[in-house]
Amino acid sequence: MKILATGRYLPEKVLPNSYFAKALETSDEWIFSRSGIKERRIASEAESSSYMGAQAALDALAKSGISAEEIGMIIVGTSTSDYIFPSTACQIQAVIGAKNASAFDIQAACTGFLYSLIMAHQFLKSGTCKNILVIGVDKLSAIIDWQDRSTAVLFGDGAGAVIVQANNNGEHGHGHLLAFDMGADGNQEKILYVPNCNTVRTNKIDISNGTAMVMSGQEVFKHAVTEMAKSAKKTLETAGLTLDDVKCVIPHQANMRIVKVLADRLKIPQEKVFTNLERYGNISAACIPVALSEAEKHYNLQPGDKVLMVAFGGGLTWASAVMEW
Ligand code: UT7
């Protein structure tokens, strides 16, 4: 599997911490020192998950050298689909004109993109199709309680996409997924969950029905560092690599303190760890593909470079993968 292109879409509207300092009992200082976030992008009503996902896909397609008709499958990681059905992937298929693609969504909260990428890898490996479009998109602004300072300040909206292609050299050439790990713990469902949501019709949830996101921040924090560190180590071990072999690490972008503890536990120098949460906050399933599309330029990734990705989210779910560029 090799990456043909990456793409991203972030809504234009920037919401700085100062917005929350006026609206809630909080401050820029608290938000930045506890999370590392300075601002986030917030989607308009017209910028639904399917819209943002399609824009990210078109961005990747334009750089990929293939046409939409050559895409054989679309997998979208999201927990904020426009509708119960059709899936966001089907909506995106129609917008971009990928008429030869099958299309479906994967729901693994913030881990949705990595679960989807690993699934794409399996389909490419089995020879099911040649080109797969993998998207991570979320519009968390639509499912948070804007009066709850413990969650409202942390999240944002966005989409990232990658187009992956079966490697002609089989599993031994450049650009394949060297190893991965996936996990889940359904016993922890109540530390991070959204009872019910319906994001597209009104673009707002009715919080009086108790439908907004509920999070026990400290509990989630502890599980996030433990599971991401374990998963990343396992993946590197399976690949027979050490962190010295890795050009950069793309962690889930939930909290700068989580990223720092993770880097300490894995003994990775900070400059190898890519972060953008200062600008976007936590964009859930979009975190890794958006970061990947920025890291490509930041680290000038070249064929043969190894990139470690590690994600964590509601479910609980987690995953990691190391890939050769
Ligand atoms: O994508 C995966 C999902 N999410 C995550 O991975 C998030 C994981 N958790 C975290 O990132 C952190 O736990 C938070 C950023 C959510 C919270 O940071 P914390 O250092 O764990 O703070 P805390 O929850 O222990 O709260 C400390 C204090 C509390 O006040 P008291 O009880 O000490 O008086 C909170 O009520 O900070 C208060 N607080 C705030 N104060 C100002 C909570 N939110 C805010 C706020 N502004 N926005």
Any chance you could write out the topology, listing elements then pairs?
Elements: E1 2-9, E2 14-16, H1 17-23, H2 28-35, E3 39-41, H3 49-64, E4 73-77, H4 88-96, E5 102-106, H5 112-125, E6 131-139, H6 149-152, E7 157-165, E8 177-184, E9 192-193, E10 214-215, H7 217-239, E11 248-251, H8 256-266, H9 277-280, H10 287-298, E12 306-313, E13 317-324
Parallel strand pairs: 4-5, 4-6, 11-12
Antiparallel strand pairs: 1-7, 2-3, 6-7, 8-13, 9-10, 12-13
Helix pairs in contact: 3-4, 7-8
Describe the model.
By secondary structure, this protein is of the alpha/beta class. The protein folds into two domains: 2-165, 3-Layer(aba) Sandwich (Peroxisomal Thiolase, Chain A, domain 1), CATH 3.40.47.10; 176-324, Peroxisomal Thiolase, Chain A, domain 1 (3-Layer(aba) Sandwich). 33% of the residues lie in helices and 23% in strands. It has a five-stranded mixed beta sheet, with helices on both faces. Strands 8-13-12-11 form a four-stranded mixed beta sheet, with helices on both faces. Strands 2-3 form a two-stranded antiparallel sheet. The longest helix has 23 residues, at 217-239. The protein is globular and about 55 Å long. The N and C termini lie close together (9 Å). Bound molecules: oxa(dethia)-CoA (UT7). Oxa(dethia)-CoA is lined by residues 26, 30-31, 34-35, 110, 149-150, 153, 192, 217-218, 220-221, 224, 254-255, 258, 282, 312-313. Oxa(dethia)-CoA (UT7) is lined by residues 26, 30-31, 34-35, 110, 149-150, 153, 192, 217-218, 220-221, 224, 254-255, 258, 282, 312-313.
